[in-house]
Specification:
mainly beta, six-stranded mixed β-sheet, five-stranded antiparallel β-sheet, 2% helix, 43% strand, globular
């Protein structure tokens, strides 16, 4: 089933990526449909700009899903609490544990006013895509991949090389870095984005950036293990790319 949900908060928009049942969850506008351990999850999550629904088999750290909170250019991912006893849909006294936080890409603006955000609550943890809006068309000019490592959230560019052109408009590169689950680990690998990828090989820059990335104590992301893994042997975290 494919669903699209959009939420506008000022200049901020949140949307969801298509979902494959049992594999990934979506960014939704402050609603939580699932319950865990027979308890109702909070629906009204204060300060959340969006939520990532819990997967079919939710992790113990966030059985109700993840709320996204933005303040001073920092994005925090907080476990959605259960609803207060006797107050269905209202958050309990605990606001939920902060699972990770980190700065959003500078290109997005301090309030995400120049980006659209996609996200999934994957079995490997929350994974986000931040697409920077362009001036020429609705096609973004860059897309950042965000993920969590040891309670730190970091983003790295996924578009490398020259943009393809269609109808005199730049439409982005045919090949991009995309998050995959390979042997139970998050790995960024080249993925075909445009039909031109059928006749063009991935460029040197995107191949050089492929592999497993880590987030340092200062919050910076870096390639730690280069990889030539065939993406077809892994599971794509997102079923569609912007």
């Amino acid at each position: 089933m494919t669903r699209t949900v959009a939420l506008a908060v000022g200049a901020l928009a949140l949307a969801c990526a298509p979902r494959q049942s049992g594999e990934q969850s979506e960014v939704t506008p402050g609603t939580v449909e699932s319950a865990a351990a027979g308890r109702a999850c909070a629906v009204d999550v204060p300060n959340a700009i969006g939520t990532l629904e819990a997967p079919v088999s939710p992790p113990a750290a966030a059985p109700c899903g993840v709320a996204l909170e933005l303040a001073d250019g920092q994005l925090s991912l907080r476990a959605i609490p259960f609803a207060a006893e006797g107050l269905a849909g209202v958050a309990s006294q605990s606001s939920g544990e902060v699972l990770a936080s980190g700065p959003i890409p500078d290109a997005c603006g301090a309030a995400l006013e120049r980006c659209e955000l996609w996200g999934v609550h994957d079995e490997l943890g929350p994974v986000l895509l931040a697409a920077v809006r362009g001036h020429e068309s609705e096609v973004p000019i860059q897309v950042y991949v965000g993920w969590v490592d040891d309670r730190r959230l970091a983003f790295t560019p996924s578009w490398y090389g020259l943009s393809a052109v269609a109808d005199h408009t730049r439409v982005g590169p045919p090949w991009v870095l995309a998050p995959f689950a390979c042997d139970g680990r998050l790995t960024l690998l080249p993925a075909a984005r445009l039909p031109e990828a059928r006749v063009e090989d991935p460029g040197e820059a995107v191949l050089a950036a492929a592999g497993r990335w880590t987030i340092a104590a200062d919050g910076s992301a870096a390639l730690s293990e280069a990889s030539t893994i065939d993406a077809s042997t892994c599971r794509a975290v997102f079923t569609a790319l912007p």
